[in-house]
Amino acid sequence: MHTVWKGSISFGLVNIPVKLHAATENKDIKLRQLHKECHTPISYKKVCEGCNQEVKEEDIVKAYEYAKNKFVVLDQEELENLRKENEDKAVEIIDFVKLTEIDPIYFERTYFLSPDTTGSKAYALLRQTLEQSGKIGVAKIIIRSKEQLAVVRVYQNALVMETIHYPDEVRSVSDVPNIPSEQTVVPKELETALMLVEQLTTEFNPDKYTDDYRNALMELIEEKKATSTISASDKRPVPDNVTDLMTALQASLDKTKKPAPRKRTTRTKKNA
Q1: How far apart are the C-alpha atoms of 31 and 220, rounded to whole Å?
Q2: Tens digit of pLDDT for each residue in 120-139?
Q3: How far is CA 75 from CA 54, 79, 143, 145, in A?
Q4: Quick one: DSSP state of residue 41?
Q5: Between the CA of residue 138 and those of 13, 97, 162, what are the distances in Å?
Q6: Is 187 helix (H, G, I), strand (E, B) or coil?
Q7: What is the pLDDT of residue 272?
Q8: Per UniProt, which keywords does this protein have (predicted)?
Q9: Per-residue confidence at 40, pLDDT binned at 50, 70, 90?
Q10: Dist. CA 8–CA 15, nearest whole Å
Q11: Which residue in 34, 94, 155, 205 is a FRET match for 191, CA 20 to 30 A apart?
């Protein structure tokens, strides 16, 4: 597994060297965009709207827009130093709470925690402590230049860390439009709905659920591979601006050429 982050987690005086690995992966099928006429892949370029030209990566700086068209430019070295100051700190578990006290709306992404070379004993201690207490740890961590609130818990035989949103990142329910106010529910309708829930109630088995759309799309792709495969064009037309530039250069060259001097013609006088 690829290591996303390397550091340590501590609770009390116990320090656990750990590595962080993404626990989930996106299985979406990525489709490319081609030009309908020649089947050449469509590319996206970073273009400066003011200069109307493509910008290289080294010519791009980061900035914060604090008002319309008003920016504070942040130097990359400043950002790197700020990130290092926080990232080098150990992740300290600051509280222990019950998992049921955290609404799922707060959860963001899950990572596996693995012990580093010397961390196996402390890792096992935290794992067993969480299991027997029935609690999860609340901590903070810097990932990709962002301070994240996170929880540490046990999943099967491993410790996992799940980043969670801060309260101000979760939008207020009062901002959601058209939510009906409390209404009187017909008892018979409620009874029928509860019976339906009871009939559909089962133990959660994740293997039971599959992505039907993704499977159908892959079947369609396999079918079309056998019957209608196309090759992308590798002949890209010369942009008009290049042609115009050559024309302008040639015109400029022709303009600098001095016209050939005219030959003087001498007239002979006729004898009277």
Answers
A1: 13
A2: 999 999 999 999 999 999 99
A3: 22, 6, 19, 14
A4: B
A5: 16, 7, 10
A6: helix
A7: 42
A8: DNA damage, DNA recombination, DNA repair, DNA-binding
A9: confident
A10: 7
A11: 205
C-alpha dist (Å) from residue 166 to 64, 95, 99, 142, 200: 21, 15, 16, 14, 34
C-alpha 3/C-alpha 19 separation (Å) is 6
**Number of residues written out for the chain:** 272
> 160 with 110: CB under 8 angstroms?
yes
3 state SS of 98: coil
Query: How far does the chain reach from its first CA to its final CA, in angstroms?
Result: 112
Q: Are strands 91-97 and 5-11 parallel, antiparallel or unpaired?
A: parallel
Residue 20 has a CB neighbour count (10 Å cut-off) of 23
CA distance 54 to 45: 7
**40 within 8 A of 233, measured Cβ to Cβ:** yes
- On average, the pLDDT of the chain sits at 82
Lowest mean pLDDT among 47-51, 186-190, 256-260: 256-260
Find all residues with CB under 8 Å of 1, minimum gap 6, and list them: 21, 22, 112, 114
Residue/partner pairs of 212-215 with CB below 8 Å, 24 or more apart: 214/27, 214/28, 214/29
Give residue-wise pLDDT tens across range 226-259: 887 777 666 555 555 444 556 766 676 676 665 6
Going by C-alpha positions, the residue among 73, 76, 83, 75 that lies closest to residue 146 is 83
Q: How far is the C-alpha of 230 from the C-alpha of 233, rounded, in Å?
A: 9
Sign of CA dihedral 112, 20, 26, 98: positive
